[in-house]
Amino acid sequence: MPRAEVGRTAAGIVADALSSSPAAVLGVATGSSPLALYADLVARRADGLDTTGVTLVALDEYLGLSADDPRSYAAYVRSSIAEPLGVPADRVHVPTGSNDDDALAFERTIASLGGVDLQIVGIGRNGHIGFNEPGSERTSRTRIVELAESTRRDNAGPFGGDVDAVPARAITQGLATILSARRIVLLASGEAKADALRAALMGPVTADVPASFLQLHPDVTVVADHEALGTPA
Ligand code: F6R
């Protein structure tokens, strides 16, 4: 499908899920891939979709940025998802903190919500999902991680292009955490994602390509454009 349809198609999947389950727990990725999806959901809300009963759970957060910092994922979730969808702040959960207790607390939060019904994920050029960089184990849970140099480079835009200004560490849901969502929608757009997407979907299941563990999940939908899939337009 063309790039413009990725967001619309994925939003259709989320909207169908919310129509039948308005109090669903929605796992949200940040980054550029799902922005069109969120914008489309906001448009559907204007057309009558009730998004206000949803609970939002984010995948990850940089360490060292306050929740008020516009480059934080907390700020992204607030301004691009929660506020425009009318989700109150007490039903928005973004991992925060810098130690094992904080990570465990986030796992407990997800458990107390009854788990994630529908998880949206993007994919990094190095095959990461969440901030589970290559080498992450299938059994990993929410924890503090070091970001790969390539991830910091890819994410330098909001930091004025300065790689050194991108936090070197993050807190992220682990692969086991992500895989325990009942349903997963993977979004990928653009040629830069083609190698990672091919390895994730067609290659061996390996910690070298963390997204390949999605092959082990029974309900994953991939929404990708021609460039990411490497198929003719
Ligand atoms: C973001 C996240 C990351 C991104 C991935 C792709 O919460 O967990 O795994 O989904 O880095 O980022 P974009 O969409 O900006 O190419």
Automatic annotation (TrEMBL):
<dbReference type="InterPro" id="IPR006148">
    <property type="entry name" value="Glc/Gal-6P_isomerase"/>
</dbReference>
<dbReference type="InterPro" id="IPR018321">
    <property type="entry name" value="Glucosamine6P_isomerase_CS"/>
</dbReference>
<feature type="domain" description="Glucosamine/galactosamine-6-phosphate isomerase">
    <location>
        <begin position="7"/>
        <end position="215"/>
    </location>
</feature>
<dbReference type="InterPro" id="IPR004547">
    <property type="entry name" value="Glucosamine6P_isomerase"/>
</dbReference>
<keyword id="KW-0378">Hydrolase</keyword>
<dbReference type="Pfam" id="PF01182">
    <property type="entry name" value="Glucosamine_iso"/>
</dbReference>
<keyword id="KW-0119">Carbohydrate metabolism</keyword>
<protein>
    <submittedName>
        <fullName>Glucosamine-6-phosphate deaminase</fullName>
    </submittedName>
</protein>
<dbReference type="InterPro" id="IPR037171">
    <property type="entry name" value="NagB/RpiA_transferase-like"/>
</dbReference>
